[in-house]
Amino acid sequence: MKEKLNRRKFFKVTGAAVAGSAAALSGVNYGFAPLDKTEQTLADYSPYHRTDMQNVPVINMHTHVRDTENNTTTEGLDAEVKSRLAVMDKMNIKKDIILVSSRDKGERIALHYLKTAPERFIYYPGLDFNEMDKPDWPDKMVRHMEENVRIGARGLKMILGKPRTQEFCMPMDDPRLDPVYARAGELGLPIAYHSNDPEEFFYPPNRFNFWCGGEHQKDKGFADRLHELVSREELIRQQENMISKHPGTTFILVHMAFLNRQLALLADILDRHPNVLLDLSAAIEELGRSPMESAQFMTYYSDRILFGTDGSSHTDWEPFLHRHFICLETDEDNLQGPYRRAWNIHGLNLPKDALENIYYKNAEKLLAQPVIIPK
Ligand SMILES: [Zn+2]
Q1: Which of 293, 322, 324, 366 is deepest in the core (most CB within 10 A)?
Q2: pTM tops 0.85, yes or no
């Protein structure tokens, strides 16, 4: 099929038409096809149409599964996996990494995905905090993690950075977790870590609050309980302790560590800790609020950022993925972000090299690292 027009080529062509002579245009292949009745429509030329990146493979490092009314039976689950694979094929997603925070939530579904298409799905389960106050809990969790590796796990998922979780659990740098973090490093298991929450959750939900200003987001914040909960600064300190104590363990700070509005601090963390990677999931709408700064950061650190979406069993995957790609690849204004939040954003227009790193090269490197399967 002939190559389709993209924006950059369009500008080049129109520039040439203005500056050059009409003769220069005739008979020259400008790399785009004229509108062809049989296979193209004007939609192919719209800014919301992906062009030269659609053949680049993608690895989605942050997905979930969850109970829905349709996946309670084996047949229902089979149908869910089949439709997810069909979208992955269509959108050129080579692998989905499925994160499951706690044992009872989603494990059954994740293992079914893994069994059905082991070459397409990778599973990072969590820990079980039920008996965390017992003295043998750290040992038990190390064994629990090893057992998970034997049944197919290739990483660990942690979510202690949510202030409301930490209230009844433990800090990220709690010494009880040190044996787990250290063993994860020895085995070669990366830890996908939810280590904070959006900045606005910590502020009052008024009309100036991006996240919590809209009616439907009000319940997400916890500004009224700030005095009882761990602060954002304290979470960053815990994260720092944890990462510095375990330089041999790879930490993937998910959602860009929720420091999308403090990129200078995030740059500092990356510079000081080579064992830290970031994932982009649910962060594009934040990054798109200051697109030029974000694009600069993401280009400079493109070898440390992994593509992720946070989508799950109920997600309408194709348009959801499409919104991610358009926001990352184009310089369109007033775009709906992947999550269609209360605000629209400016596309990040990342260079191709940076996109290739983020879409698959960094993930390929990470997934190629050997995982030791304990006896
Ligand atoms: Zn998630």
Answers
A1: 324
A2: yes
